[in-house]
Amino acid sequence: MFALDPLLLGDVTWGDFAVVAVKVGVSFVVLLVATMFMVWFERKVIAGMQNRIGPNKAGPFGLLQTLADGTKLFFKEDLLPEKADRFVFRLAPFLSFVPAFLSFCIIPVGGDFTDGNAGKVRLFGHTTLLQVADPPIGVLLGLALSSIAVYGIMLAGWSSGSKYPLLGSVRASAQMVSYEAALGLSVATIFLLAGTMSTNGIVLGQGGLRNWNIVATGVIPFVIFMLAATAELNRPPFDLVEAEQELVGGFNTEYSSIRFALFFLAEFMNTMTMSAIIVTLFLGGPQPISIGSWTADVHLGPFTGTFWFLAKVLVFLYIYIWFRATLPRLRYDQLMDLGWKLLIPVALAWFMALAGLKVAQNAGWGGGAQALGMVVGAAVILACFGLLRMATRVSARVRAEEGAMF
Amino acid sequence: MIEVIVFIAASLMVIGGALGVVLRSNPVHAALSLVLTLFGVAVHFVSMEAHFLAAVQVIVYAGAIVVLFLFVIMLLGVDKVEDLRTEPMMRQRYLGPLVGVGVLGLVGTAVIVARGRTIVQSVEGLDTVGHDANVKQLARSLFSDYVFAFELTSVLLVIAVVGTVLLARRPNKGLQAAREKAGVNA
């Protein structure tokens, strides 16, 4: 048995098999079409923010622009550089494209989480979860797949047999591996609160605005996750991977035609998946907005959850585009400093503080003892930060003495 | 039936990857073969319902350690085919087969000895013990019975990091001397 879904417990019939096949097919097609519209959305919003019109020729409001671009890309000549490592050069786009698809399968895109339904809905006489798979390791699968996606970029740069792509890919892999630590640490705070790693379980624990993890974990892990996710996606302001001014085009300089299209598609698909993961982890996924006893009611039958999910994801997609339109790109050393000297220590400290609080609550400490514990914890954390700051200052001074320019 | 198919496929991945690591002369291809092996092992873990181990296998080994290997290979630019005729360490040639046979002997003995004893006593499936039984059991034994071993391992890692920094960071004497000569105050 590979995953827990009420559909697949007990005997698996052809009907159950058909439901799974439909889920896979639908998520594949929807993800592709959504990527198409995401590209359009990004171009349109950016155009709006820059006082331009943006794509408006192909189809109504230029909606079919991406389709036209995609078709053009598919019919272009597929180049293979002479110095390229042929096998790896062909393999790399798939290493970045396939994880982008797979990581979407853990996201509950809808479902009824009220009245102890635990996300199950009845569709065509079958009870099932509205997610392709609910593996016990849940979010860790997403992390694992995003660490596979590093290979795509890294090998693409190396196998091109040219120096700018190589530099781009070395940068990219260092960046992605570094920020994965901060990403993992902020996800760990959620595991701590939810007591489970399954996405379904995490969403289930977030009924009501006060239980949304963004509030329950105290905002900081959310901010860290958001920043680390942006870096993990190589989106602006962390898009050093394809810093045109320095690296021509980055890791995908030598790619053309359909292979380039695969990278492009994977990038936008990852943006959507990451938004969906943020919504699932921190904003209650398909749970409706409810404060106290008041709930924002939308009645769409089994698709009520899907409505909320899409609404929340759209907000984050917009925020990512907004980032791109607003923030200038970081310098490489600034990027590494932010990741290693700020995000990872803060994420670690916050995680330890929450763990301490949880232990105190489980041990049944009184309010006074808990407050005292918090104060002691805060003091320890502050002392650690002081030490860290001293260490970075000293090392910066030593570097300056040795003649480094930064 | 499905178990057998999964087992055979995963084992082929493991063995093929291992052969690739040994036989490919391009270090990047060898490292990629290692990733294949690690994936095969992860599939084995999943088919034995050790989901957490599978995830950690992919995140830590495939996602971090081999990436680091590749990083070093790319940064040092040793992506040329090695000339196997010149051996930097001659003794290695003779010790290699010895170690190989030794390891094979050890593993073989372990398998033969354990054959009769690994009768499954009572294993509960994930559908009875719940989603997170894996993690909880692992955490319980790591942080209670084996907490000293666990902490010692982390200390070892810290020592390794500190040692590496110490070895890698030499004061840049040449530059300093040049600056003093030029009359720039450091």
UniProtKB/TrEMBL annotation, chain A:
One of its GO terms (cellular component) is membrane. GO terms for biological process: aerobic respiration. This is Unannotated protein. Keywords: Membrane, Transmembrane, Transmembrane helix. The chain crosses the membrane at residues 20-41, 87-109, 137-158, 179-199, 211-229, 260-283, 303-323, 335-357, 369-388. InterPro entries: NADH_UbQ_OxRdtase_su1/FPO (IPR001694), NADH_UbQ_OxRdtase_su1_CS (IPR018086). Coiled coil: none annotated. One of its GO terms (molecular function) is NADH dehydrogenase activity. It is a multi-pass membrane protein. It is found in: Membrane.
Automatic annotation (TrEMBL), chain B:
One of its GO terms (molecular function) is NADH dehydrogenase (ubiquinone) activity. Keywords: Membrane, Transmembrane, Transmembrane helix. The keyword DNA-binding does not apply. It holds the Pfam family Oxidored_q3. The chain crosses the membrane at residues 6-23, 30-46, 52-73, 94-114, 146-168. PANTHER family: NADH-QUINONE OXIDOREDUCTASE SUBUNIT J, NADH-UBIQUINONE OXIDOREDUCTASE CHAIN 6. This is Unannotated protein. It comes from freshwater metagenome.
